[in-house]
Amino acid sequence: MRTPMTSLVLACLACLSAALPTIAQETSPRQDDPRIDAETGRDVRVWPPDVPFDHHHLRIELTVPDMSQPKFTAVQTLTVSPVAIPRSSITLDAGKGLTFSAVTVDGKPAAFRHEQSARKLTIEFGTPRPPDKVITLRMTYDADRPGGGGDGLTFSPDETRRTPEWDPMCHAQGEPQHNHLWFACHDFPNERVSSELIVTVPAPFEAVSNGRLVSVTYNPDGLSQPPPAPPKPKDDGETPPAPTLEGAHGTRTYHWLQQKDHSYYLITLAIGRFDVVNVGGPKSDYPGLWMPVYGPLGSGEALRKNFANTPEMVAHFSKLFDYPFPWDKYAQILCRGFSAGAMENTSATTFSEPLARGGGRRGSIDGIIAHELVHQWFGDLVTCKGWENLWLNEGWATMGEALWAERQEGEDGYQSAIMGDFASTRARSAERSWPAQAGMVNNRYRDPDRRFTEGDNVYQKGGSVLHMLRMRLGDDAFFEGTRRYLKRHQHGYAETDDFRLALEEVSGQSLDRFFDQWCRRPGVPSVEIDYSWTPDSSDGQGEAGTLDVTVEQTQRINGDNPAFAFQLPIYAKFASPIDGRRGEYIYIACDTTMSRQSFRLAARPSSLSVDPYLSVLCGKKVRQPLEAHLDVLHNGPTLAARAQAIDDLSDSADGRALAGLVSAWLNAAPRSLDGNGDRFLADRARGAAASVLANRLDSLRAAATAVASRLHEKAVTTRSPVASRR
């Protein structure tokens, strides 16, 4: 029932709301908010472009007449259908190095406009085409320097790098938005297409691309320029003679077909003269999948050894993700001058050429192999909808490195990989905060390449976040949610919330806050842990008592950056087992600057191991007696706990700390060749011991210098009685 007072209040509220628009117009944007251009007030964030056409199939018939020249001719055929409404034209991304001579629409000549400065190609249909009507676009063009320097299609020797190699190669690099430099496309990850490349190259060069190899045709009368003659090798008894160029005349045509759709940036091409080995086969761990490795001439044996574990990896990840390898083959191609390290093109990963070198042990490059292989599911099968969500690709690939280390070397191998990710993330993003910096999931960028190098890094922080989710949910829910995510979004796109929802469905947990603070917020927490013990009996003779633990968050906390919220696990180890238990886990809920909690324990703990399974991405400083740190160093429950003890001991000036670090180093070093965890611990202990020793030597030098200075002053005073009387 409305009363006179209610009417008065409502009238006041109405007047106040009417004034709000005027107030909002008078409020200028925050000058320190990078989302907004301070001069114009414009939102400068990047949003995925519209997709007005459904792209069906891309076919490129490409001819490279001379591998020593960065040029080719091509005919590109693209089938599309309008989405939602009739459309009379299409605009594609097309690089300035492309020159289009003719375009047809459904077989009829069509008007087109190529704006080279804007890198856009617009094709007119003549009459509007209705939704779902399949349209066939055919474009004839020449390419001159269609990229270079590692973007688009790079030829080697590359004039931009002045590489000295005589044996020509070329390779594509499409991520993030570089494939439009060598063919017209929708150069953003929110559209997928099947692809087909028919590539004619001078013999004896080979062309490798996505999908299955349909055919190879030799054209003995093909017009081509033979590659330049190789330089005369040095007669030093060690340099092998350069390969001959027999059969250099004529051409070969390679026909590759990728029938399953993928994003445009994943389309690839590599041309060169290769040693090729198949590391798969009927007796491998994953029979039925062709796994060729392409490398420089003469590298065959090194390739076979370096990539030998690929079939076992494919089998392991196919089982772990409950999804068979999703493509027709898995090629790994080593390219000269490759600037990206490695790139997960669908079914055809490209690597930097130095990985073909021999001399390393089997498995020595397994990390990067596993990283790119996991991308075949995360990034290729399911692609991030935009670069804002790039961590879904790169975080999972980084996690794949740790999962493979776990497979090969157990929990220590896994933890050493995760500790590396944690350390890198802390080093790069510990001081980052709102609003000056953005979080890992963000669209505040001008150059999409920057998304791969930002402080809250999509690689190491992404892998760390996935590990934290695994620790929080447990293996069953974590991997079941991951499998649901893959199957739900297969051959499609995903955003961060899609992954979150899949995990929530299988776990029953609400993860909104977790994803908001670890994915969208910049920075990581830093914590300092103190504790005290109060025995039950007043004389201190009893065993039971109360453990009081204080956790302080020391990172920047203000109106834009609240305290992080997390549960910090601590393992309290007893000096002697009690009821068969060597220790007890306690958990502290933290969501304020200072969190305090008390715990009843059956005995005083001999030491505390804080977060021994790395469930919280943070910097830690644990304050406890030296004896407790040494106890964790030698008897901690996990590799991570022992590594934390090393870090804490490195701050101590006590000689026993240095002795403990040296002992840990010497104990771990003999085992370091057999275990990744032992290598990690040996290296960490050695580095900490060296740091402590250097600090002590610096202190001794400073003390010696001070003593020498005092003695010198005293000697001068003793020798100068006149001066002393002034």
Could you tell me the strand content as a percent range? 25-35%
Main sheet: strands, sense, barrel: 8 strands, mixed
Poorly predicted runs are 1-31, 224-246, 722-726
Secondary structural class = alpha+beta
The termini sit apart by 99 Å
Q: How many separate helices?
A: 14
- Order of strands across the main sheet: 5-4-8-2-1-12-15-14
Write down how many β-strands occur, each being a DSSP E stretch of 2 or more residues.
30
What would the average pLDDT be, to the nearest integer? 88
Protein model, in words:
Helix content is 31%, strand content 28%. It is α+β, with helices and mostly antiparallel strands. It has an 8-stranded mixed beta sheet, with no helix packed on it. The termini are far apart. The relative contact order is 0.07. The model is unreliable at 1-31, 224-246 and 722-726 (pLDDT under 50).
Short summary:
It is built from 14 helices and 30 strands. With about 725 residues, the chain is an alpha+beta fold. Helix 10 runs parallel beside helix 12.
Comma- or semicolon-separated keywords:
726 residues, eight-stranded mixed β-sheet, five-stranded antiparallel β-sheet, 30 strands, 28% strand, elongated, disordered N terminus
Task: Walk me through the topology.
Layout: H1 4-26, E1 53-63, E2 71-82, E3 87-93, E4 98-105, E5 108-109, E6 112-115, E7 120-129, E8 135-144, E9 147-148, E10 151-156, E11 169-173, E12 192-202, E13 206-209, E14 212-219, E15 251-263, E16 269-272, E17 274-278, E18 292-296, H2 300-306, H3 310-320, E19 331-335, E20 342-343, E21 348-352, H4 366-375, E22 382-384, H5 391-429, H6 460-473, H7 475-489, E23 492-494, H8 496-507, H9 512-520, E24 526-535, E25 545-553, E26 566-578, E27 581-590, E28 594-601, E29 605-610, E30 619-622, H10 626-635, H11 639-649, H12 655-668, H13 676-719, H14 721-725
Parallel strand pairs: 1-12, 18-19, 19-21, 22-23, 24-30
Antiparallel strand pairs: 1-2, 2-8, 3-7, 4-5, 4-8, 6-7, 9-10, 10-11, 11-16, 12-15, 13-16, 14-15, 17-18, 20-21, 24-25, 25-28, 26-27, 26-29
Helix pairs in contact: 3-4, 4-5, 5-6, 5-13, 6-7, 7-8, 10-11, 10-12, 11-13, 12-13
